[in-house]
Amino acid sequence: MNVSKMPDKMNGECKLKKITVEDYALFKEKQEIVFSTDDKKITVILGQNGTGKTLLYNAIKVCFSLEISGNKIPSIPVIDTTFDQSLISNENEWLFFVSENISHQMKIKNYGDYATHDIINKMNELYHKYDTKQDVDCFDVDKDHNIHAKNQNGQVVYLALSEQVLSNLAYILAVKQVCAPKSFLVIDGGLMNISREKYKNIMNMITENTMQVILFCTDSEYQHVEKQSVGKEYIIKYNSENKCSEIKKTD
Question: pLDDT tens digits for 59-100?
């Protein structure tokens, strides 16, 4: 990830309206997802492991010509947005796409080049609003641009998994408020093995500080989401006979 400079500011509303896939791996027939764009800002795409959640997550990234790992792309999905799609690039994709890497590969220390005084203050504000343990007094930046959590005595605090996810997201949302305050966030997993209370706090932080949320999750993860914020819900069904997945909108 290139962290040499702050991403350019994206003025205006940046939301996803619809994605259409056809002959895209498990999704053979033409199918679409219309995302929620109103006050009920969350669109949930439910599916068990292996049904194609990550395929659809990657399909959205493909629409912006972002790099993805895995097999060759069979077809190019089509996405409708409220903004110029060229504004999303490999350099700033971490502001809009969050996957399981949020808990281990996307260390806060990698983001230090963006750590202005205002952003660190906003990160601290967000973290302390949604952290229930309050082991961390503050975050600050060292001379090598690494961000560290510290206690009241100024000692470095080593964060547990859930606190690391919360702190990474607090930083992402802090930068997002500066660079793209009216934009979307697409989440694919990354919140597994987190307690119900912490999951709820993390989702509250995301939904209260993001204009639009696209959430790919399993049933067990979905039970921790505040349903009053969900505008649209889809479920992915896998057919073992024809080895295809179908996207269905739920009532």
Answer: 999 999 998 876 667 788 999 999 999 999 988 888 899 987
Residue 46: which H helix or E strand, with range? strand 42-46
Phi, psi for residue 136 in degrees, rounded to 5: -100, 130
Q: Name the nearest CA neighbour of 134 among 154, 151, 158.
A: 151
Q: Which residues contact 227 (CB under 8 A, 6 or more apart)?
A: none
Token digits for 71?
A: 């097999």
Query: Measured between alpha carbons, how far is residue 131 from residues 54, 73, 105, 162, 199 in Å?
Result: 28, 40, 21, 10, 11
Tell me the pTM: 0.91
With residue 205 as reference, give the H or E element that holds it. helix 196-208
- In terms of DSSP bridges, do strands 212-217 and 184-188 run parallel, antiparallel, or are they unpaired? parallel
Spatial distance between the Cα atoms of 111 and 146, rounded to a whole number of angstroms: 7
Three-state SS letters, 124-187: HHHHHHHCCCCCCCEEEECCCCCEEEECCCCCECCCCHHHHHHHHHHHHHHHHHHHCCCEEEEE
Alpha-carbon gap, residue 186 to 15, rounded angstroms:
11
What token pair was written down for 108? 């806060």
Closest CA to 249 of 15, 16, 14, 18: 18
Query: In 3D, which of 61, 69, 31, 24 has the Cα closest to residue 185?
Result: 61
Helices (H) and strands (E) in the chain, counts: 5, 11
End-to-end Cα spacing for the chain: 40
Whether residue 4 has pLDDT greater than 90: no
- Which of these, 35, 42, 39, 36, lies nearest to 56 by C-alpha position? 35
Q: In angstroms, rounded to a whole number, what is the distance separating the alpha carbons of residues 178 and 163?
A: 23
